[in-house]
Design a protein that fits this description.
With 632 residues, the chain is α+β, with helices and mostly antiparallel strands. The chain contains 22 helices and 21 strands. The strands form 5 sheets. It has a 6-stranded mixed beta sheet with strand order 10-17-16-20-19-18. Strands 13-14-15-11-12-21 form a 6-stranded mixed beta sheet. The chain has a 5-stranded antiparallel beta sheet with strand order 6-5-9-8-7. The N and C termini lie far apart (129 Å).
């Protein structure tokens, strides 16, 4: 009785047949267990494939909108070893992935492609992203077209509110490499006689991001930017041993990496130069900095004197002949650590004035020229205003870097007063002898009280206020001749109004990027004219006026420069995106351009700003560069 009621409630006869079939199965299993194990019946098809289910919401089962499955991914390998991936969209949409066909028994069954992983639906029947980089029949090039800039209305609204974010304004808590940069130039205290503070001093020394060491081939220490002799002697001995080991194997050591620190070694005759940097500079850039330090030593001693000292005594202690010039080496080393566009680009920066005004200054120098003059220069704020030279001689940028370092960075010359007579070797001109340089600081002579209140020229901000006349001669007895020429030049410049023009240009400073290109997203740029070996740039203020912001900017420029000047690189345009900035490097046979914008600037805006900078330089070329110069 109970069985009949159950059959009636469950669907009548059909249920009884099923029950009967089940009883038959039990009987077969009881009578012939071995036969059943040898041949098992096939599994029945899935109910969903026989007929659609009657449960509510079944209409949505045939068209899934949230099903996730894998899509085809193709990978391209590039020559540098990196890889790029992109997706190949399905040839049909999700709505087309299910089609109904008639079965032989009149039953409607969906025709589907069963995937290998057992999914009911085709692998392509998944929800794809509507990102513009995923296009039908697309390839990797489609990732770089203008569609990348297509954005939703909400994103555009957000961008209008955040596009004013400046480069390096956001704090990157993962990058702690420059966390102690503000104290990079603090002097390390000396180790006391009892060595009580030895560990503390050692920690200070190791915390520095940049070290320069100079030693002789005999292992004698010559110079260290940080730490005194007692602190570095042990490390000097280790470095000398390592370098000598590789030299003995006829395989000179060029450099090596330890952790996140790069060691670069340069050997110049009897001297070993070592740069230890955590700032991410390339070997080529560090080697150029070591070469400049070597040139600074030659500017003091000359090459014949240096060679003779070590030929007679290989274990010569060079600190005594170089005594008093450590400030020049340290100021040059600090210039590299802070970041120097002049050193990076191996080019000069000129003061922006009109071509006609520069022509008047050139003629003034030529008119007052004495027969003993070799070079005549007017320098303002560390930028070249005018230069006169012989027809067959030119000043090398490396020589001018040494001169400007001596006059405007070290402060040693300015501390001696407004007038100086200095013997100096210019290695780019002739590393075997001395020239004699007469230096007169015009701003100091014009306003003595302002000069007394102004901080030392070792302060990088004070160099912008200085105007100097440099007269160079090969005759060491030409002091009075050059002094008379200087008096005549200053008198004439004041008379024809050129002195006031120079002072006005110095007070105005460099223009900002928005003054050059109104409305541009660019925050800074470097433009180098390869033909003139000169560069121009906007003001570092207000975005990069702090030492830390300037160092971050110069680190970015170093990376762009290293990428475009790598040994086997053929890059002409390089676009880089990071979480705190976007940047562009553009090199041609005529110029090099490096520019940076905030992280929310568009690529189109960056490219447009770069083009406008090029157009501005072409219009102002004879103002921002000295083309040809004055010769005699």
């Amino acid at each position: 009785m109970n069985l009949e009621e159950h059959n009636h409630d469950s669907g009548g006869t059909g249920s009884l047949k099923t029950e009967g079939a089940a009883s038959g199965d039990i009987k077969v299993e009881h009578n012939g267990r071995q036969e059943a194990e040898e041949s098992r019946p096939p599994l029945p098809p899935r109910p969903s494939l026989l007929k659609p289910t009657n449960r509510p919401g079944s209409a949505y089962a045939s068209k899934p909108t949230t099903g996730l499955s894998s899509i085809d991914i193709q990978t391209l390998s590039f020559p540098d070893g990196s890889r790029g991936t992109f997706s190949t969209p399905a040839s049909r949409s999700v709505s087309e992935s299910v089609s109904i066909s008639a079965a032989s028994g009149g039953q409607s069954t969906p025709s589907r492609k069963i995937s290998r992983n057992g999914s009911d639906f085709d692998d392509s029947a998944s929800l794809m992203s509507y990102a513009p980089t995923l296009r039908a029949n697309g390839d990797l090039a489609s990732l770089l077209d203008d569609g990348l800039n297509s954005q939703s209305a909400a994103w555009k609204l957000l961008s209008t509110q955040t596009e004013s974010v400046n480069a390096f304004e956001a704090v990157d808590y993962e990058d702690i490499s420059l966390v102690n940069f503000e104290s990079e130039f603090d002097e390390i205290e000396a180790v006391d006689n009892k060595g009580v503070n030895g560990e503390e001093v050692l920690l200070q020394w190791k915390s520095k991001l940049k070290h320069y060491l100079i030693l002789s081939s005999a292992g004698k220490p010559i110079y260290s930017r940080h730490g005194d002799q007692n602190l570095i002697n042990g490390y000097i001995g280790i470095i000398q041993t390592i370098i000598s080991f590789f030299q003995g194997a006829n395989d000179p050591l060029m450099g090596f990496t330890a952790g996140n620190t790069r060691f670069v070694v340069t050997i110049a005759g009897p001297l070993y130069f070592v740069a230890i940097s955590k700032l991410g500079e390339s070997d080529t850039q560090l080697r150029a900095q070591l070469e400049a330090l070597y040139m600074q030593i030659l500017s003091t001693l000359t090459l014949p004197t240096l060679t003779q000292l070590f030929t007679n005594r290989p274990n010569t202690d060079l600190r005594r002949p170089l005594e008093g010039t450590e400030i020049l080496l340290s100021s040059l080393a600090d210039t590299f650590t802070k970041g120097s566009p002049t050193a990076l680009l191996s080019a000069l920066e000129c003061l922006k004035i009109r071509k006609s005004q520069r022509h008047v200054i050139n003629n003034t120098l030529l008119k007052a020229r004495t027969d003993k003059l070799l070079y005549g220069l007017v320098v303002a704020g560390g930028r070249l205003v005018s230069v006169i030279r012989p027809k067959r001689h030119s000043l090398h940028p490396s020589d001018l870097l040494l001169i400007f370092n001596m006059l405007f960075e070290a402060g040693s010359v300015k501390a001696g007063g407004g007038e100086n007579w200095i013997p100096v070797c210019l290695p780019g001109f002739n590393n075997r002898g001395y020239l004699y340089m007469y230096v007169s600081f015009l701003s100091a002579l014009d306003d003595e009280e302002e000069s007394e209140e102004r901080p030392s020229t070792a302060n990088s901000s004070s160099r912008e206020d200085e105007i100097a006349v440099l007269l160079i001669s090969a005759d060491k007895e030409s002091f009075y001749d050059l002094k008379q020429m200087r008096d005549d030049v200053v008198t004439e410049l004041q008379k024809n109004g050129s002195m006031e023009i120079i002072k006005t240009a110095v007070r105005q400073g460099r223009p900002s990027t928005t003054d050059i290109v109104p409305g541009t997203p660019l925050r800074h740029f470097l433009y180098k004219s390869r033909a003139n070996v000169q560069f121009t740039m906007p003001s570092l203020s207000p975005h990069f006026s702090s030492p830390l912001a300037r160092r971050k900017l110069m680190t970015l420029y170093h990376n762009l420069h290293a990428s475009t000047h790598a040994k086997h690189s053929h890059l002409k345009v390089l676009h880089c995106v990071s979480r705190d900035s976007i940047s562009l490097a553009w090199t041609t046979p005529l110029f090099e351009l490096y520019c940076v914008a905030g992280p929310n600037a568009s690529r189109a805006g960056l490219a447009q700003g770069a083009n406008k900078v090029i157009q501005w330089v072409k219009r102002e070329e004879e103002r921002v560069f000295i083309i040809g110069g004055a010769v005699f």
